[in-house]
Amino acid sequence: MFYSEKEIEVRYAETDQMGVVYHANYLIWMEVGRTSLIQDLGFHYAQLEKDGYLSPVTELSVKYKTSITYGETVTVRTWVESHGKLRTVYGYEILHADGTVAATAVSEHVVVKKDNFRPVSLRRIHPQWDAKYTEVQRGEG
Fold first, then answer.
1. Would you indicate the residue range of the signal peptide (predicted)?
2. Does residue 92 contact residue 81 with C-beta atoms inside 8 Å?
């Protein structure tokens, strides 16, 4: 299975009064991981937007397992869990420096036309990207 890894240094501003990373920051880290995965596969999300398309989140699930605190460096591991005609599901693990899992997550996305938000197949607008996702999806690549 192909996955991308991106290190993130936890900033003070990402923590709450308890010194623990605030839960919403994990979503930002997932976006960083997704962008890194796309780039590692040879594509650019910004180009998709320039071409008139967006890929909004349609579903999201996060399981928090252990706390992350200021000063740590974490790794966001991201992969394509599944890819179909209209939906792509990304998988994530957020890992402490020692490799223990701090959180796991999945996010589901669709590609839509920017002007009307109608779903469109990635295969139709970017066949190479679609083929790569099909190749590397979990259990396939």
1. none
2. no
Q: What is the CATH number of the domain that holds 49?
A: 3.10.129.10
Q: Which of 16, 40, 98, 130 is catalytic?
A: 16
115 is catalytic: no
Is 141 inside any structural domain?
no
Domain membership of residue 54 (yes or no) is yes
114: its two tokens: 């920017």
**Gap between the Cα atoms of 65 and 73, Å rounded:** 17
Which residues, at least 6 apart from 126, have a Cβ–Cβ distance to it below 8 Å? 43, 48, 51
Give the sign of the dihedral formed by CA 11, CA 13, CA 19, CA 20.
negative
Query: pTM score > 0.85 for this model?
Result: yes
Q: Residue range 127-132: average pLDDT? A: 97
